[in-house]
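Schema walkthrough. Field components (list of strings):
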Amino acid sequence: MTSAQKKLSWRLVGAVAGAFVASLFLTWLLHEHMTKRDMHRLFDNVFNDVAVDIRERVDGRMFRQAMALRDKIYEMREEAWWNDPDESCRRLRALADDLRVDEITIADADGTLSHSARRSSVGAFNFRTATGQAREFAALLDDKYELSQPLLPNTLYGEMVKYVGVWMPDGGFVQVGAQEPTVRHLARTAVTGLTHGWHVTGDDGGIYITTGNGTIISHPEAGHEGGQWQDPGKDFYCEKRMIEGFPVYIVIPRHTAVVERRVLVATSAFLNGMALILASILVGIVITGYVKDHLAAQRAKEMTMAADIQESAIPRTFPPFSDERRMDIFADMDPAKDVGGDFYDFFFSAPNKFTFLIADVSGKGVPGALFMMRAKASIKGISQAGRQLADVVAEANESLSRDNGANMFVTAWVGELDLETGVVSFVNAGHNPPILISGKPGADGRRTSYLRTKPGLVLGMMPGMKYRCETLQLSPGDAIYLYTDGITEQPDAKNELFGEERLESAIAGMIANGMPLFDGARSGLLSAIMACVEAHGLGVEQADDCTQLIIRFNGSRRGATRTFPPTQDGIADASDFLDEVMGNGERGTVNGEQGIGNGKQLPQLHIILDEICSNIVKHSGATEFSVEIGQLENQDGVKIVFSDNGTPYDPLAHTDPDTSLGAAERPIGGLGILMVKKMSSSISYSRTGDRNVLTVELASGGAGK
Amino acid sequence: MNIEKQLNGNALTLKVGGRLDTNTAPDLEAELKLDGIMEVNFDFAELEYISSAGLRILMTAQKAMMACGGKMTVAHPNPTVQSVFDITGMSSIFTIV
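Field assembly_structure (string):
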């Protein structure tokens, strides 16, 4: 992850966490508010219920006094003093004290306040026209039998008084009034124990009623009356209201409300937490997706770059040297989705020496592609510096082993074809064995065989390695097929690899069916093999780069090469071969062309062939030898190249026998080489790989020296 | 290679045609029975060429004749055969007629 991505993800996590905390706080506030509101509603309801009950009791108590008063009035209005305001006032006062009320008021049938325990009130107003509290009582003159009021400021004096009144059947009504202490005094017994077992909510909380001085007269639990009211403390919610003069308290434990709120907040927090987790998962998915996309895009870009490097590094022009007829070469690379770092290359390392190679780099992507470039450049550079093939590969290994921090390596099979002799020198550095396609097309049939040699270590892994150079004589028409493990290791649906056996039999089958190795500059064989590999891996992704190269030796110009067994018959066949090539045999043509030479050199050529071949057969210990006959460049001469895999032997290193000696002293041996030397216009020996190579040229004029 | 053999008393004449090389030398060697022969004449008019394997037989015959006091001649070598004799110094050993 880049720092920008980290920053982004932290920001997102921060935002989600912030939202979580904020919503938690808002939830808490909301529930706090709602809880308080709900509690006030609850308290209101409870107070209303309590008020109804208390008033009923207080009213009941005062109606009893009012009715007792009415009974007395029936008697009193018969008295003579009734119409004396002062006397009646005095008497009513005494009655009020008897009845333990503060006020007594009597209205006549018209509604006039006719009598009172207070002198100043008598005749003060008519109830029908009165203002304030008194006006309501006019109803008792009309259709009501009794009426009660709560404590209210009274009309005349503004004192807080509770009045109740009952009608007089013959007109008018009587009223008793009590100020707050009097109401409490009167109704105390009626209200005592009113709230027993009365809970505010569920089993919690209680309602307390006290007297004016704080003595509890109603307690939620019976038998607890008489105590003094005390504030219940901060663990409780408590609210007080005056009802009919009685201080009433509602108390509920704070935890009842708080627990409820806590449950709500906890539920809300849980939901918020779930939301946070969901949001985090979503954020995670978004970020992962973003990073994945980003990485995939980067990887795709890198892969494209690597593929471009790889593609640019391999030669794609066929034929690469249009005037070179001594060999044909074709190669193809089918890159896999993940670039594997395969490559091939071919070039002239020296005149007539054609180097071709195939390689597979272990690393992938851009590093693999760059390593591939290094490997390619160093092999080509060292080859063209004129080094022996084994040294080329060893030096390339040195170069690649240095500064190889990524521990990448490359497997390679490097061949060098001598276009004059058909000898292929090759070094295998840990690569798959190529397939040799040999023999002439036609009745004999071509043969395919793996060119198995003990491979050297892969390149780039360890410095100081030595590599073995092997050689192989190609006859004209022989071909070598190189490939990378993408071919043989392509799995099928059952994970079975294509394998070497299938590869060889596929090639053998195609050849047997008459498929030519080359058609023009291209090789249909390679595409046919690729089709086989694809058919094998049907429904499976191509596992690795599939790279193939095929090279065919066509023989040196207008010449031919043939390999013979080291026997007398082999020499006889070589002699026939010479005739054949020189246009002296029955066929008289080679490769469809006229024989070479002018015919004059033929006896000398036969002598040379006979001498050299018999030397090889008798002395070299070779298991085969080859004879290549070709035309000299620029002149009408002939060149014969003898090549054998016997013990190293340079026939030119020996001194010539003394030809001036007499017959008796003359040794028999040594004359053959002498004759060859004398007859040829040029002769040279080299040890190429494990082969003795003797090249003899005969100019057009016949014997040279 | 073809060989025509003519025995006249103790004189042996061999007309050798074709190629005298590693392949054919053993055939000539088989025909060349020198017991009691005092004179060997090779007629190389039809001989295309000779290699060292042929020279070896000529040398063997030459040495045998020299040992028994006989003589050996080589007649009608073509230029190729002659050049072989020249190159190998055989011209000075053989009696070329």
